[in-house]
Amino acid sequence: MFLGVVAAGCSSGSTPPHGSADTSATGATSRTTTGTAHPGVPAAPGFKSLLVGLIDKGAEAPYHLGQPYPPVDLASVPTGLVGVVINATWAQLEPKQGTFDFSVLDASFAAIAAYNRAHPKSPLGARLRVFAAFAAPTWAKELGGPAITVPVKPGTTSTPTLGRWWETPYRHAWVDLQRALASRYDSQPVLHDVAVSSCATLTAEPFVIAPGTIRAAGAAGWTPAAQQACLEGAFSDYAVWRHTAIYYPMNPFPGDPGITTELMSRCAQSQEGGGPWCILGNNALSPDSATTERVAPVYVEINSLWSADTRRTPVAFQMNGPQPSTYCEAMIIAVEHHAQSVELWPRTGPGAGGFAAVPSSTLVAWDKALRTGRPPVCTG
What we know:
The chain is an alpha/beta fold. The protein has a single domain, classed as TIM Barrel, CATH 3.20.20. It has 11 helices and 10 strands. The chain has helices at residues 61-64, 90-93, 103-118, 138-141, 168-185, 211-218, 224-237, 257-269, 296-308, 327-336, 360-372; strands at residues 53-56, 81-89, 125-131, 148-149, 161-162, 191-195, 245-249, 278-285, 315-319, 341-344. The strands form 2 sheets. Strands 1-2-3-6-7-8-9-10 form an 8-stranded parallel barrel, surrounded by 5 helices. A two-stranded antiparallel ribbon has the order 4-5. Helix 8 links the parallel strand 7 (245-249) and strand 8. The N and C termini lie far apart (43 Å).
């Protein structure tokens, strides 16, 4: 039986240099490790280079509130960050089928280009993330059948609906969006990778699906096999990105973790087989993600795949939440698992200050840790 998962949810053009460990980072507890210098993953033939360092994840609030995203705000980018995520919803990008409005993306890329002209020694790169799921346009939610009503989201009074994300009409519409995006932005030099959000039903993560959604979608014809097929189809969904890497966040497939292992292997070998250049990712990075958390098998497999081909297997993570007290220990896990980049959460409320609560000197130290492959020293 398929059981749902609910997760908490630039020197960008060069290979990271080798160097010594930096001891200026701070964290909740004292821990020191030794690490092998990260050799970096050079750009695959025909592809742009990868972001190397810390990335501003951006806010999720517009998605959860059912609002369109504004252009990226670069008014207070701290020293130590090399990239930002440009977030948008499918509904705002394609309000009518085949009619696209990319103004928010154009404005975001223009803002980053202006920032880079003003800060030539510390330019920023971008990752693109498009939220579908609850933020799919109304017309897409009605492809292949009426929209599916799922349980009310925690903390809201809205009644969210989803389209039939596993059905062919919906998936074809999603590919049409990717084709339009790639046609416009695949050669955009500021854009370094695109987050995979095919099959997403709760946040923008393909594997994360709530039990209530499973029950509602199951009544409409969804099956675990359909979910597997959708996840496998993500590689073809994003095959239109010929010069920009894709970031595929992995989680254990409930009931059959071997499916995740298979998909991770496909990700690592995708570009070699003529598909998109795929970054192995996970969006639940924490101090325990490689040991006691349910995502630990993903981290084991990442190390295995990276060790098999260290020069062609890029890795990236996103922090599990906006609690900065966990960040330093989590950065150790990231470096030990060969990450080139880590997304940090922005401030989301009291006690959840995200990277805004971290001194710039510490961000710089963590950035250096990713570039050198040498874990930071965390002191409480």
